[in-house]
Amino acid sequence: MLVAGLVVTVWGATPTATKLALETLEPVPVAAMRTGLAGLIALPIALALRLRLPRDASDWGQLFVSGLSAFVVFPMLLAIGLERTSASHAALIIAVGPIVTGMIACALDRCWPAGRWWAGVTIAIVGEYLLIVGRDGASLARGNLTGDLVCVAAMAFVSVSYVTGSHLSRRIGAWSTTFWGVVLAAVPALTWMGFSVGAAGMPDPSPISLASVVFLAVATTILGYAGWFWALANGGIGRVAPLQFLVPIIGVILAVALLSDPLTWRLVVAGAAVISGVLIASWSRGARQ
What is the DSSP string of 159-186? Predict the structure, then answer.
């Protein structure tokens, strides 16, 4: 539970860390540096642990979709969105990831969720509407509609990664799916960095931006995923998994404390609706075939 709590805190800090990295870096370099560094760390670990590789073309295809969605498209869109909106908005938008993941999984499995699940979805969508569209003057100054919508797209891609990654994990294991996915995603990231450095020279980030990128690569990507899988295996999924609902709460608290994001009444109401809706949907008794 302690390890899971630390991982949840790290993941909650991701929007704030990304925002800090953007102080002296552009969104695409932030995403490329994050994924490239994570891949360089993940490769020797995967080799040392002799993690299983995909066996056939179907598994390689799922690894490609899962890895690039989670470790290339998601961080890039998140960085682009956070350049235009606040970290507190991004934290609450990402919170509906479990619902989008459930929608995608049900569509692929051709099942129909229970009524309680739809009730939770409706409450969460109302919360997102209040957050993104029905904003007051204070939140408008700290958030941009375009940035919020880009964060929605980022969340959709990471949900696709969760679904494909979970299917692949049943055959090669969760650690193999994660670490080889990071390694695969690092290839285009490092390639882009090489061309970019050759054309424009080395970026010159501030110490805070550089530390934030290292945090995103090491803590969020490598230690976060490894610690979460270890906690689920040793603490029990039923006890550990609900801690994930603390991620948006921690994200908003850190954004308010470190970035001076305004804590408006609309943000509080929207956050309560999003989190309660996700809880109701996640505690639904399942889908009806």
Answer: HHHHHHHHHHHHHH-HHHHHHHHHHHHH
Are 13 and 254 contacting, i.e. CB atoms less than 8 angstroms apart? yes
Over the range 222-238, which residues count as b (16 or more CB within 10 Å of their CB) and which as e?
A: bbbbbbbbebbeebeee
Model confidence, pTM:
0.84
User: Position of tokens 């494909």?
Assistant: 164
DSSP states of 142-156: H--HHHHHHHHHHHH
Residue 207, classed as helix, strand or coil, is: helix
Q: Model confidence over 128-178: pLDDT tens digits?
A: 888 777 544 444 444 578 888 899 999 899 888 888 888 888 889 888 999
Q: Strand, helix or coil at 113?
A: strand
Residues 6 or more apart whose Cβ sits within 8 Å of residue 289 = 111, 112
